[in-house]
Amino acid sequence: MKRAIVVLSGGQDSTTCLIQALSQYNKVYCIIFDYGQRHRAEISIAKDLSVQLGAYEIKVIDVSLLNTLAVSSLTHDDIPIPDYQPLSESLSSTFVPGRNILFLTLAAIYAYQVQAKTIITGVCETDFSGYPDCRNDFIKALNTAVNLGMARELQFTTPLMWLDKAEIWALADYYHQFNRVRQDTLTCYNGIKGDGCGQCSACHLRARGLATYLEKPEMVMTSLKSKIGLL
Fold it and tell me: Contact, 69 vs 98, CB < 8 A?
């Protein structure tokens, strides 16, 4: 029996990963992290999506210690959420240090418990906000370290790593879940569901990809299918 863990935040990317995983695995377990994030709505949204889409099991883990240790505008109300700016050499205040290190490590422990071999995360290196813990090299290195430390062959899987945002919209559409992803997910750094605030980096990337997909759906879908081996 094929089992997988999906690290779910309730945003566009992780929800699209969940949608895809449900078509590929017999049992899909969702792990949702409560790290004292600024916008608590994402936890309830992630739980609702897990239920609606049919996840086998849903686990919410309290990792509020991360809020204490990680200085970020996503964990501290007194640090303003910045508007979108082109990428620079300095990290945005929305970067949460250690978040994916912690999340993937705990997801691996959960996988060990339920005898799943695959941990799925929606990180992406093609369209991302410059976060070092979204890069392929990091994922591969952490996967190696976790396997050594647990004496178990687990696989960190990143279905979106080489897709751009337009192709991620196409992937949701391929599984007939475009409207759900557009209307019911929360990607916005200012905590606004659906199309979001339109000002933050997360909303900018999401809206730019959506516009590209809506303008050239057939071309984007063809590109997606080529990348994921459906042609």
Answer: yes
